[in-house]
Amino acid sequence: MDLNTIKDAFDRVVKKLRLSSSKTQEVIDQVRREIEQELAKMQSVHDSASPDDLKSILLELKTKLNEIGALNQLEGPQKELNIGLSKYTKLLEKSFNPDISKAYRNVDFDIHTVNQIIACHFYQQGLFDLGDCFINESEEQETTALKSPFLEMYHILEAMESQNLGPALNWTTLNRDKLRQNGSSLELKLHRLRFVEILQNGSRDEALKYARTYFSPFASLHIAEIQKLMACLLWVGRLDCSPYAEFLSPNQWGNLAEELKQQFCNLLGQSCENPLGVAVAAGIQGLPILLKLANVMASKQQEWQSMKQLPVPLDLGREFQFHSIFVCPVSRDQASEENPPMLMPCGHVLCKQSILKLSKSGTRSFKCPYCPHDATVALCRQLYF
């Protein structure tokens, strides 16, 4: 598949679309000008004009519109655009497999779980009216419990957009212990932002008072950061010329809003990325490989949907790796609940089925495939990732 060819074809269609749009606007402007001119004439003679005079003006307008020939002018560019779109569609069908249903695997999804995911998606995106409508139609009333926390989150984020830190600071104060357990310094970062604002307004005493009031709970873990902020007191009103100008970065508000969203979702036990978006993005990456696999298996008259594991690797990138995966170095099978990874006394790891084969179903000791140490099934321990 040559992506450059597809891009060139797309660019040609876009060019024809712009020409067609430009010509359409030009013709519309011509028609509008003629109509406005004749309307002006009718208004100027409105009181003294006879019906024949008005009829004459309308006939004159009709003649001018026929001379413009709007449909004839638009026919050419529109025809070229339609031809370009037709060719581009055929190129896409030739380059890509339009029948993605071949890569679909029959899975019996739990409808209740799917409805929860969809409702959570709407609420997490701030589409509360849409989420309420979906819950009412799907009769999943218990899912409304997800709405209240996300309402609070968007209230805080909207306040931050208006550079109001009050709701954000209240939330971080209430959840201080949980944030510390997660290793987050979000509360200190919010206080730092407020402290810098006070300094920029030129009030050293007020900034020092603020620091004494709010920085002390963080002194044991973030003393270096607090020391930098105290040094900023020497540059009151001119922090942009100081070694600490980084605290004035315009990205501070956006970065903190994103971090707050991540921590908020984390405390809710929800992913910061909405599940539907992740599923679609992962599907887009994996779809070409699955379609190719389906075509190859179909040509060999084999059914791939009955397989427990794919016969080819499907690398979706680190952003879609949510848990550890172990592949047995002997059998090349991926670990599962029935075939978990087992730690041998020497420190090497194999899957359970490989160990059972080496030990003749546990009836004798065996030598590790990677070192000279002996082991028995009783000495192997299951690993949990």
From TrEMBL:
Cellular component per GO, a single term: nucleus
Primary localization class, coarse: cytoplasm
Entry-linked PROSITE patterns: CTLH (PS50897), LISH (PS50896), ZF_RING_2 (PS50089), ZF_RING_GID (PS51867)
GO biological process per UniProt: proteasome-mediated ubiquitin-dependent protein catabolic process
Molecular function in Gene Ontology: ubiquitin protein ligase activity; zinc ion binding
InterPro entries on file: CRA_dom, CTLH/CRA, CTLH_C, Fyv10_fam, LisH, Rmd5_dRing, ZF_RING_GID, Znf-RING_euk
Superkingdom assignment: Eukaryota
Alphabetical UniProt keywords: Cytoplasm, Metal-binding, Zinc, Zinc-finger
Location of the CTLH domain: 149-206
Gene3D superfamilies for the chain: Zinc/RING finger domain, C3HC4 (zinc finger)
Matches recorded under SMART domains: CRA (SM00757), CTLH (SM00668), RING (SM00184)
Keyword Heme found: no
Zinc finger (RING-Gid-type): 328-371
Residues in RING-type domain copies: 328-371
Residue ranges occupied by any RING-Gid-type domain in the UniProt entry: 328-371
Locations listed in the record: Cytoplasm
Protein's UniProt name: Uncharacterized protein
A Pfam cross-reference name: zf-RING_UBOX
